[in-house]
Each structure stands twice: as structure tokens, then as C-alpha cells.
């Protein structure tokens, strides 16, 4: 049914749902942004556990935002297009966060699993071996 031909009450209900969905998505997007900003600050300060906590909070906000249906029947128009773009940004952010979390978790892995510690241990072994020669 064309937009103009639909009863006003039906159009209003559709636009209310559109606005509610968009506002919920925007809220989760903004929460993600705030949590990532805090995580980055903690990350730069070397507070790895706090950084991980806020990266994980951001991932939860992303999951909530991505759970909203912005691709179903009746999801046409500028607001829905904006919502889909926000979800695309959130998917990319989730990928970046997951990559960073993997790196941070490697940093927290006890010796000898960390690459840097392995390299240091190998250098020590080489030096000891050279001294014995």
C-alpha cells in the first residue's frame, strides 16, 4: 500500500516504531563509542584489565544494537538507511575490538607463551650458550 494511501494511524505507528528502533540503535551506538573511548584511554595507560572490561562492555552494546531489525519488511526510507549505516559501523567496530582484545589477552598470557618473553628467553639461551663455548 502506498504511503499516502495508508491510514494516518497506520503511518504514525510505523514512524513511531521507526523512531523507537532508531533511537535504541543510536543509544547503543553512543554507549559503544563512550566505552571504546574509555577502553582506549585505559589501554594507553597500560591498564590492560580495565581496557578489556570496557572493550567487552562495548561489544555488549554492539550486540544489542545489531539485534535490532533494520532490514525487515517496511524498513525503507532515510531513517532506516541511517540505521543500517550505524549497524555497519558497529559491525566494523566489533571486528576491531575483537582484534584488539585478542592482542591484549596475549599480553596477559603468562610466560612463556608471550612472543616478547619467548624472544628474550631465546636471547638469554644464546648468550649462555656463547659463554659456554
TrEMBL record:
Annotated segments matching region Disordered: 1-30
InterPro entries: MIT_dom (IPR007330)
Gene3D superfamilies from the UniProt entry: Phosphotransferase system, lactose/cellobiose-type IIA subunit
Top-rank taxon, per record: Eukaryota
Domain MIT: from-to ranges: 25-103
Compositional bias ranges of the Basic and acidic residues kind: 1-13
Protein name: Putative spartin
Organism of provenance: Stichopus japonicus
Taxonomy of the source species: Eukaryota, Metazoa, Echinodermata, Eleutherozoa, Echinozoa
